[in-house]
Amino acid sequence: MADPSSTAILTDFDGTLAPIITDPAAVRPLPGIGPTLNRLASQFGLVAVVSGRPVAFLSERLAVVDEVALVGLYGFERSGARGEVIVEPEAEKWRSVVEHAARRLKQELPADVTVESKGLTVAVHWRSVPAMAGIAAAAAERVAASTGLKAHPGRMNLELRPPMDIDKGSAVGALVPGYSAACFVGDDLGDLPAFAALDRASAAEGIFTVTIAAVDDESPPEMEAAADVVVSGPQGALDVLRWLADHAADSRR
């Protein structure tokens, strides 16, 4: 293992630290995730959760120390040194547009299609009604086209975001400079830019990197193909993080 003090441990949340369930508002991390992240933060140079969830959601669900960096909404938000939420100024300009899009989607779509408004992004989920996938996706695409938002596919959902060059890849690319090693754990298409960012950092800066896919039967095949290591869902991700925490001291000997 590389020197922990010069290593960045980065991870997604949904599908990686927490199981995917029908109601996105009810998602909880696996037991032990918060304490494990806190252990890692006391041992490694950087520990960060890079997620499509708002920072406030991550903070509430994970209950981690301030030393665990939280990057929300694919990089549109991040936690500050004292736990405050810092928003990208250009993204803030799109808030009213996103709110308008969320209202339209809730009006146009049946109640059993979940419209998850996150402030600066809005996601349409059809997990509870798979037969509505085509209708839900078409509505989201129409609203995206009429508002200038950009549609991004996920696991049984489509998310509308401001059309900015910000994603998990740009977030990871901003976090890892200065470290000699870094890993990222993810499960879905939105995590592929983070994998690619580590690949670029490895090629350009010589950083030792590892990409880890936490997969299940629903995972897109691109995840396994792009990853250096494949584990089984959130439990596999937790096992990896616990292993890193348990063996950090060994690398200093």
Describe the protein:
This protein is α/β, with parallel strands linked by helices. It has 2 domains: 4-88 and 166-252, Rossmann fold; 92-161, 2-Layer Sandwich (Alpha-Beta Plaits). It has helices at 33-41, 55-62, 89-92, 95-108, 133-147, 168-175, 192-205, 221-226, 233-247, and strands at residues 7-11, 46-50, 68-72, 77-79, 85-87, 114-117, 122-125, 150-154, 157-161, 181-186, 208-215, 229-232. The strands form 2 sheets. The chain has an 8-stranded mixed sheet with strand order 5-4-3-2-1-10-11-12, sandwiched between helices. A 4-stranded antiparallel sheet has the order 6-7-9-8, covered by helices on one side. A hairpin with a 5-residue loop joins strand 4 (77-79) and strand 5 (85-87). Helix 1 (33-41) packs parallel to helix 9 (233-247), helix 4 runs antiparallel to helix 5 and helix 6 packs parallel to helix 7 (192-205). The N and C termini lie close together (11 Å). The model has no long low-confidence stretch (mean pLDDT 95).
